[in-house]
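Morning, I've got a small favour to ask if you have a moment. I'm working through a protein record and want to make sense of it properly. The fold is given in discrete form, as structure tokens running alongside the sequence. Can you walk me through what the tokens say about the fold? Thanks so much in advance, here it is:
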Amino acid sequence: MERAFTSFLLLLQYYVISSPAINHFNISTDQLALISVKSQIILDPFHFLDESWSPARSVCHWVGVTCGSRHQRVRFLNLSNMDLTEIIPGELGNFTFLVSLDLRSNNFHGNLPQEMTHFHRLKFLDLSFNSFTGRFPLRLGFYTNFKF
């Protein structure tokens, strides 16, 4: 059933991306990025995302997601202490309004995507207590208030 759900999400992603009526820079972009993050999750033992991250609800009401009141775009993403296991997809870089990203104390692994350098508004980043490997996206290294 999990594979069927993932296939459905990929089909939904294809439909939304290919639709000419969708503006590339809107909440749909954020929703697709979050769905991509969720599709990479290998383990969600407490079912935080399974129960909350539903396409039937606005992403602004999903667990760990806070949107700005002005633009209704994802500004804060806090997935800390959820015991999630996954690889971070490049689509995470699509959060162009993201100010805070907290992924601490999970089981994230693999390389950090280079697309994370697109976070031009980012002020807070906590990646501590995970198992990331590989090269660190260079632009992120210029910030001093980040925890790795």
